[in-house]
Amino acid sequence: MAEPNGAVVDEIIREGETMGSRDMVELIERHHDGPGVARETIDAYAAALEARDDYAFDAADFLAHVDENTTDADWWEGGVFYDVADDVEDHRISLFPAAWHDHLGGSTDVVEYVRFIQDEDSDYLDDIDLGGPGEGVPEAAVVEVLELVGRLDRPDATTAVHEARDRGDIIEDADQSPRADIYLAERAPEDLR
Hints:
By secondary structure, the chain is of the alpha+beta class. The protein is built from nine helices and seven strands; from the N terminus they run ααβααβββαααβααββ. It has helices spanning 6-15, 21-30, 39-51, 59-68, 98-104, 110-119, 123-127, 139-148, 154-167; strands at residues 37-38, 70-71, 81-83, 92-94, 137-138, 170-172, 181-184. A hairpin with an 8-residue loop joins strand 3 and strand 4. The protein is elongated. The termini are far apart.
Protein backbone atom coordinates (compact mmCIF):
# COMPACT_ATOMS: atom_id res chain seq x y z
CA MET A 1 0.00 0.00 0.00
CA ALA A 2 1.32 3.42 -0.92
CA GLU A 3 1.39 6.21 1.60
CA PRO A 4 -0.83 9.18 0.78
CA ASN A 5 0.95 11.96 -1.06
CA GLY A 6 0.80 15.01 1.22
CA ALA A 7 0.43 17.40 -1.71
CA VAL A 8 -2.60 15.43 -2.94
CA VAL A 9 -4.19 15.49 0.51
CA ASP A 10 -3.56 19.24 0.73
CA GLU A 11 -5.11 19.83 -2.71
CA ILE A 12 -8.22 17.86 -1.76
CA ILE A 13 -8.56 19.92 1.42
CA ARG A 14 -7.97 23.17 -0.49
CA GLU A 15 -10.71 22.27 -2.99
CA GLY A 16 -13.07 21.38 -0.17
CA GLU A 17 -16.59 20.19 -0.84
CA THR A 18 -16.40 21.23 -4.49
CA MET A 19 -14.23 18.18 -5.15
CA GLY A 20 -16.46 15.19 -5.76
CA SER A 21 -15.49 11.56 -5.38
CA ARG A 22 -14.55 11.16 -9.08
CA ASP A 23 -12.30 14.21 -8.87
CA MET A 24 -10.68 12.81 -5.74
CA VAL A 25 -10.03 9.40 -7.29
CA GLU A 26 -8.71 11.08 -10.45
CA LEU A 27 -6.27 13.19 -8.43
CA ILE A 28 -5.10 10.16 -6.46
CA GLU A 29 -4.77 8.06 -9.63
CA ARG A 30 -2.69 10.76 -11.32
CA HIS A 31 -0.16 10.67 -8.50
CA HIS A 32 0.37 6.90 -8.29
CA ASP A 33 1.71 4.32 -10.71
CA GLY A 34 -1.01 2.60 -12.67
CA PRO A 35 -3.00 1.26 -14.31
CA GLY A 36 -5.43 2.56 -11.77
CA VAL A 37 -4.66 2.92 -8.12
CA ALA A 38 -4.73 0.16 -5.52
CA ARG A 39 -7.91 0.14 -3.46
CA GLU A 40 -5.77 0.07 -0.31
CA THR A 41 -4.21 3.36 -1.41
CA ILE A 42 -7.65 4.92 -1.73
CA ASP A 43 -8.42 3.60 1.76
CA ALA A 44 -5.22 5.24 3.05
CA TYR A 45 -6.22 8.61 1.54
CA ALA A 46 -9.69 8.35 3.06
CA ALA A 47 -8.17 7.63 6.49
CA ALA A 48 -5.70 10.52 6.14
CA LEU A 49 -8.48 12.93 5.16
CA GLU A 50 -10.75 11.79 7.98
CA ALA A 51 -7.92 12.21 10.50
CA ARG A 52 -7.41 15.87 9.60
CA ASP A 53 -8.72 18.41 12.09
CA ASP A 54 -9.12 21.04 9.39
CA TYR A 55 -11.34 18.99 7.07
CA ALA A 56 -14.70 17.34 7.65
CA PHE A 57 -14.57 14.06 5.74
CA ASP A 58 -16.58 10.87 6.16
CA ALA A 59 -14.28 8.09 4.99
CA ALA A 60 -16.97 5.41 5.32
CA ASP A 61 -19.39 7.32 3.05
CA PHE A 62 -16.67 8.04 0.48
CA LEU A 63 -15.48 4.43 0.38
CA ALA A 64 -19.05 3.11 0.22
CA HIS A 65 -19.69 5.43 -2.74
CA VAL A 66 -16.57 4.14 -4.49
CA ASP A 67 -17.60 0.53 -3.83
CA GLU A 68 -21.18 1.04 -4.98
CA ASN A 69 -20.00 2.70 -8.19
CA THR A 70 -17.17 0.37 -9.16
CA THR A 71 -17.65 -2.08 -12.01
CA ASP A 72 -15.43 -4.64 -13.65
CA ALA A 73 -16.77 -3.68 -17.09
CA ASP A 74 -14.06 -3.63 -19.74
CA TRP A 75 -15.65 -0.81 -21.75
CA TRP A 76 -17.03 2.61 -20.89
CA GLU A 77 -20.24 2.61 -18.85
CA GLY A 78 -20.11 6.21 -17.65
CA GLY A 79 -20.20 7.77 -14.24
CA VAL A 80 -18.54 4.83 -12.53
CA PHE A 81 -15.15 3.67 -11.36
CA TYR A 82 -13.52 0.67 -13.00
CA ASP A 83 -11.73 -2.25 -11.39
CA VAL A 84 -8.84 -2.68 -13.83
CA ALA A 85 -6.81 -5.36 -12.06
CA ASP A 86 -5.96 -8.59 -13.86
CA ASP A 87 -5.93 -10.50 -10.58
CA VAL A 88 -9.22 -10.95 -8.71
CA GLU A 89 -7.40 -10.36 -5.41
CA ASP A 90 -5.75 -7.12 -6.58
CA HIS A 91 -8.35 -4.35 -6.74
CA ARG A 92 -7.11 -1.37 -8.73
CA ILE A 93 -9.55 1.47 -9.32
CA SER A 94 -9.44 3.76 -12.36
CA LEU A 95 -11.62 6.35 -14.00
CA PHE A 96 -11.12 4.42 -17.24
CA PRO A 97 -12.00 0.80 -18.09
CA ALA A 98 -9.53 -2.06 -18.40
CA ALA A 99 -9.84 -2.16 -22.21
CA TRP A 100 -8.57 1.41 -22.37
CA HIS A 101 -5.54 0.52 -20.24
CA ASP A 102 -4.97 -2.66 -22.29
CA HIS A 103 -5.16 -0.89 -25.66
CA LEU A 104 -3.57 2.44 -24.81
CA GLY A 105 -1.52 1.95 -21.64
CA GLY A 106 2.04 3.09 -22.12
CA SER A 107 1.26 4.87 -25.40
CA THR A 108 1.52 8.64 -25.70
CA ASP A 109 0.35 8.80 -29.33
CA VAL A 110 -2.44 11.38 -29.44
CA VAL A 111 -3.71 10.06 -32.78
CA GLU A 112 -4.05 6.57 -31.29
CA TYR A 113 -6.08 7.95 -28.37
CA VAL A 114 -8.43 10.00 -30.55
CA ARG A 115 -8.94 7.11 -32.97
CA PHE A 116 -9.58 4.65 -30.10
CA ILE A 117 -12.16 6.91 -28.45
CA GLN A 118 -13.98 7.57 -31.72
CA ASP A 119 -13.84 4.04 -33.13
CA GLU A 120 -13.77 1.70 -30.15
CA ASP A 121 -15.61 3.40 -27.30
CA SER A 122 -17.64 6.33 -28.59
CA ASP A 123 -20.09 5.99 -25.67
CA TYR A 124 -17.49 7.96 -23.73
CA LEU A 125 -18.14 11.03 -25.87
CA ASP A 126 -21.86 10.82 -25.16
CA ASP A 127 -21.23 10.74 -21.42
CA ILE A 128 -18.76 13.56 -20.87
CA ASP A 129 -19.50 17.24 -20.54
CA LEU A 130 -16.46 18.68 -22.28
CA GLY A 131 -15.81 20.33 -25.61
CA GLY A 132 -18.29 21.70 -28.04
CA PRO A 133 -20.71 20.40 -30.63
CA GLY A 134 -19.34 18.18 -33.33
CA GLU A 135 -17.82 14.76 -33.65
CA GLY A 136 -14.35 15.59 -32.43
CA VAL A 137 -12.90 14.51 -29.11
CA PRO A 138 -12.63 17.31 -26.55
CA GLU A 139 -9.00 18.30 -25.93
CA ALA A 140 -9.57 18.21 -22.17
CA ALA A 141 -10.73 14.60 -22.47
CA VAL A 142 -7.66 13.59 -24.49
CA VAL A 143 -5.39 15.25 -21.93
CA GLU A 144 -7.16 13.45 -19.06
CA VAL A 145 -6.85 10.05 -20.77
CA LEU A 146 -3.19 10.71 -21.58
CA GLU A 147 -2.65 11.47 -17.88
CA LEU A 148 -4.46 8.49 -16.40
CA VAL A 149 -3.93 5.81 -19.04
CA GLY A 150 -0.76 7.06 -20.76
CA ARG A 151 0.79 8.05 -17.40
CA LEU A 152 1.89 11.51 -18.56
CA ASP A 153 1.74 14.51 -16.29
CA ARG A 154 -0.61 17.30 -17.39
CA PRO A 155 2.02 19.56 -18.99
CA ASP A 156 3.46 16.65 -21.00
CA ALA A 157 -0.01 15.51 -22.06
CA THR A 158 -0.88 19.03 -23.22
CA THR A 159 2.46 19.26 -25.06
CA ALA A 160 1.76 15.93 -26.80
CA VAL A 161 -1.56 17.30 -28.09
CA HIS A 162 0.07 20.51 -29.32
CA GLU A 163 2.91 18.62 -31.01
CA ALA A 164 0.41 16.34 -32.79
CA ARG A 165 -1.42 19.46 -33.99
CA ASP A 166 1.83 21.10 -35.13
CA ARG A 167 2.75 17.94 -37.11
CA GLY A 168 -0.66 18.05 -38.81
CA ASP A 169 -1.80 14.73 -37.32
CA ILE A 170 -4.81 16.37 -35.68
CA ILE A 171 -6.83 19.52 -36.19
CA GLU A 172 -8.42 21.52 -33.40
CA ASP A 173 -11.57 23.56 -33.74
CA ALA A 174 -10.00 26.93 -32.87
CA ASP A 175 -13.35 28.65 -32.32
CA GLN A 176 -13.92 26.55 -29.21
CA SER A 177 -10.57 27.10 -27.55
CA PRO A 178 -9.79 26.43 -24.73
CA ARG A 179 -12.51 23.76 -24.93
CA ALA A 180 -11.48 22.74 -28.42
CA ASP A 181 -12.51 19.52 -30.06
CA ILE A 182 -9.77 17.48 -31.69
CA TYR A 183 -10.25 15.78 -35.05
CA LEU A 184 -7.99 13.33 -36.81
CA ALA A 185 -6.65 15.25 -39.80
CA GLU A 186 -8.16 12.78 -42.28
CA ARG A 187 -11.57 13.00 -40.58
CA ALA A 188 -11.78 16.72 -39.87
CA PRO A 189 -14.72 18.65 -41.30
CA GLU A 190 -13.87 20.46 -44.55
CA ASP A 191 -14.20 23.90 -42.96
CA LEU A 192 -11.38 23.06 -40.51
CA ARG A 193 -8.87 21.78 -43.06
